[in-house]
Structures are given as C-alpha cells and as structure tokens.
Amino acid sequence: xxxxxxxxxxxxxxxxxxxxxxxxxxxxxxxxxxxxxxxxxxxxxxxxxxxxxxxxxxxxxxxxxxxxxxxxxxxxxxxxxxxxxxxxxxxxxxxxxxxxxxxxxxxxxxxxxxxxxxxxxxxxxxxxxxxxxxxxxxxxxxxxxxxxxxxxxxxxxxxxxxxxxxxxxxxxxxxxxxxxxxxxxxxxxxxxxxxxxxxxxxxxxxxxxxxxxxxxxxxxxxxxxxxxxxxxxxxxxxxxxxxxxxxxxxxxxxxxxxxxxxxxxxxxxxxxxxxxxxxxxxxxxxxxxxxxxxx
Length: 295
Fold this sequence. Notes:
Order of helices and strands: EEEEEEEEEEEEEEEEEEEEEEEHE
Mean pLDDT: 93
Distance between the termini: 64 Å
Helix content: under 10%
Structural class: mainly beta
Number of helices: 1
Strand content: 25-35%
C-alpha cells in the first residue's frame, strides 16, 4: 500500500493510494477518485491501468472515508484500462469520467448510482456490453455516444429519461429493450445505430425526439405501444429497410418527414376505425400503406 500527499487545502487533501488519486473532503466526510495530476491546473491521464477495482473506503490520518464520487473526466483517455469495478459507496459519477477509454471492455456499475452523466462512456469503442442497475433514473446526453462495439442494451424500468445522442452511432447495437418507465427519448438518441433490427417503444413514452432512430439502416419493424403522444420530425428518417410500423390511437402529432426516405416501408398498421385520423397526419405518399387492424 502506497500513500502519498500531493495537495492540501483548508478542507480537502489530495492523496495517492496505490495506483489511484483521491480528493479527501474532511469536512464532508467522503472521498472522490480524481484524475492523475497534470501540468498546471489540467488533468493528467492515467497510464498503465488495466484492471481497476475502486475501493469502497480509504484511510487518511486514521479516519476511514467512503468513496462517494468519481471525478470529472477522471479516467478520460486512459489507454490501457480493460475493466473497472465500482463499489456501492459511489453515488455519483461525474461528466466524462470514462470517456475515450478505447480499450475498456467491462464495467460493473453499482445499484447506488441514479444517473449516468454527460459523456460518461462516450467513445469507449471496445465496450461490448454493460448491465444498467435498477437504480438508474436518467441516462443523460451522449452517455454511450460512439460506443461502436456495444451489441445490446436493456434499459431498466427505473429509467425515466434517455438523453440526446445517448446511443448515437452505436453501430453494433442489434437489440434494445426499453423499460416501461421511460417517458422521453431524446433527440438523435439512437441515430446511426446501423445494426438495430427492431424496436418496441412502450406506452409510457410521451415524446420521441427528432431523429431519435434516423439512419438505423437495418431497422425492419417498429411497434409503438398505446400511450405515446407525439413523434417528432425525422424520427425514422432514412431507415431504408423499415418494412412495417404499428401506430396506436394515442398518437396525436406526427411531425414532418417522420418517415422520410423509408423506401421499403410496406405497412403502417393503425387501430381499426382510425385510418382517416392518420391520413390527416401522414404525408400523402404514405396513405396507400395505411392498414387498419384490430387493436
């Protein structure tokens, strides 16, 4: 065990324990994993870390402090990290904490985390799967942006919000399971997920953002369950292999070019007796594709 003291303020101390750096907040009674010190006030880059097991507590001056936070851009650009395990004492992961870790394959998230912040895992191009705990309520903007090896994702029922570009250009993503707690899907949330084949959008989703599923070139079927109110502009733009979509009667608004460039679309299934309703909301070239079904 190696402990060194690097920086001190009246209320905090920056220390190193083994391979990791920490801020110890003595007044508040917790510690934060911090970045490698860099030149001046800038963050440095951790070198040589492969398997990272963040401890639940560290000792400083005879007092045990829980690790409650992972700092801003803490492990950003770490070139060698393959896996990371985060203890249940951590309640907050800061913006960009693991972004651009191109060798990161495995992450164990604790059930103490309620939010994945901006760019947490963006451009982690080797990350192929991750299990989201049932404590997560928000997936903010760009969290998994350009995680090009991610193959599947299950959004737990606890999640209420999926942010803008949250899964943008996850080009290997084949399956997504959206939890029934999701109420909003952000702009370009799944844009350019070119391997995605089908999606079911649960009825608790009230809003689907612009270009949320645009350019998903392998997408063939979409089912939107009753409860969804609006489909924004260009939501499914250039989904060139989309063949069928099922729309519920609760959809009141379909904005322009929602299905623009869906050149293989053959069927738009709508509830029986609602054909005229949807003809008034869809572009005229789509009218021959509308088919009524018993809901």
